[in-house]
Amino acid sequence: MAYTIQPSTLGFLRQLRQHNHRAWFEQHRDEYLLARADVEQLVAGVIEKFSQIDSAIAGLEPKDCLFRIYRDTRFSKDKTPYKTHLAASFHRNGKKVHAPGYYLHLEPGGKSFIGGGIWHPFPEDLKKIRQEIDYNLEEFEQILHQPAFRRRFGQLTDEEALQRPPKGYAADHPGIAYLKMRNFVVGHEISDEEVLSPKLLNQIVSSFALMKPFIDFLSRALDD
What does UniProt give as the signal peptide span (predicted)? Predict the structure, then answer.
């Protein structure tokens, strides 16, 4: 089975960006359903292929991995009703679990990316991750500095990192840059050409495989 994203999927998302209102969306609902089915087929391919590397995602259903296209506008100044991307997450215990996992984001205009980690962990989970880093800093740095990992994802950074050391950690701790972080996420952008390429599935799987030790480390912290 081919798992290639069709140009019409990105075309629909481009149009949605220009016509982000309910009347247009309802007139083009069939196009949306085709775009969603297109991405769902790709997600099925990711599960099938990557589960050979991370068996914990083997039981996921593609439809449960995809996010809704409807935006929650209750607390946002932006009242446009629809997201202008299609995305999926691959968590070992399902999509809705707030835990480390893999992420795929498809959005035209060079905004697509492949990523993974955990974003805004709960306070107690953040404490556990920091403790795991504190206890196993050498292992954590070996993961982050692995050459292929570094080439694909660059350096681990967090724009929301604390300015001061978190409570219980000294400013001169050798891992203080990581301990100040509030998000632990890596990823890389993919062009529209890469999204439409027959090689996309292999690219996703290879990126997920590279970040698996990182996901394993974060998951272990929360399993303890």
Answer: none
Domain of 46: which CATH number?
A: 3.30.930
- What is the pairing mode between strands 101-106 and 184-190? unpaired
pLDDT digits (tens, 9 = 90+) for 23-52: 999 999 999 999 999 999 999 999 999 999
CB atoms within 10 A of CB 18: 8
Around Cβ 24, how many Cβ atoms within 10 Å? 14
Q: How far apart are the first and last CA of the chain?
A: 40
Q: Is residue 2 part of a domain?
A: no
Q: What is the pLDDT, as a whole number, of residue 73?
A: 86
* C-alpha span between 150 and 66 (Å, rounded): 28
Q: Tell me, yes or no, whether 174 lies in a domain.
A: yes
Own/partner pairs, 159-165, CB within 8 angstroms, 24+ separation = none
Q: Which contiguous run of DSSP H or E holds residue 112?
A: strand 112-118
In this structure, are residues 94 and 58 in contact, taking their beta carbons and an 8 Å threshold? no
Domain with 18 in it: 7-223
Cα-only R_g, the chain: 19
3-state secondary structure of 57: helix
Does residue 110 sit within a domain?
yes
Task: Kindly report the pTM of this predicted structure.
Answer: 0.95
